[in-house]
Amino acid sequence: MATQDIASTAAAPRFAAVPNLPPPDAGRIRELAGLVERHAPQEGICPTSIPRLSAIKLSAPSEELVHALHQPAVCIIAQGGKRVMLRDEVYTYDASRFLVFSTDLPISAQVTHATFNAPYLCFRLDLDPAEVSELVLQLGPPAVPRAKTSRGLFLSKVTDGMLDAAIRLMRLLDSPEDAAMLAPLAARELVYRLLRSEQGERLAQVARTDSHASRVLRAVSWLKSNFAEPLKVDELARDCCMSTSSLHHHFRAVTSMSPLQYQKQLRLQEARRLLLSEGIEVSRAGYTVGYESASQFSREYSRLFGVPPSKDVSRLRDAGGQ
User: Does the pTM of the predicted model rise above 0.70?
Assistant: First the structure.
């Protein structure tokens, strides 16, 4: 899909910096790739028998940008490459680095490097906020200054310790009798190593109850559950124990958008799902997600997805989207 599909971001993309760390061990990367491929029996995201753990495989680059609300997770590419877009920010990564979502974010993504003989392979572990908070409490105050940015999405280089924990977790898929006891330990170790990584403080921010990032998460949670409702930012700020100006500032710092823009993304992504999965009429889809004006719905849909709703649905169905 062409770049106009994210035309709601007028500024030029900013590429996220990656710390200059030693490359991960190639043998560990190959082992993780083999495990992911073995436990991804089909194309796409394959949930496993271990809770919150998925193996992802694609045998060709994505022809279309995939728009989704991505939940908190750590993603480690074992083979291939991908780019993730959060409005005007582009995060490009491969088998040398990992990507963390510390909060739910509406993103666009595209696999850029994959072939039939060398498919894109990715390890994904969804993060448990309670587990992250518990580890942050146990680790105590950060040994380094608190992160200068609160962005809920960041890249960093993979460490051998992280790979070891990910590999042990994947190996347990072959030992179901051991997985119930040992998988939570391996997952916990991986989260621990995330928190101890160079940018781990950015994940820790959202787990501290006294932080602005944690209050933003409360706002995000409300928006996820009530995106079709009229948004009263003053009331939302009060419910999150923030002033309206503080909520706007810190919400944008975490998500790169305002609460209203975030709500708009949720509405449009849900409308697209309704159009494709349930086949409802365009006007009904807009009304269902909270739009009172059909023309405004069509205009904002076109701005995000590149084409009006009816043309988008026809195009995706013709391409095998349903």
Answer: yes
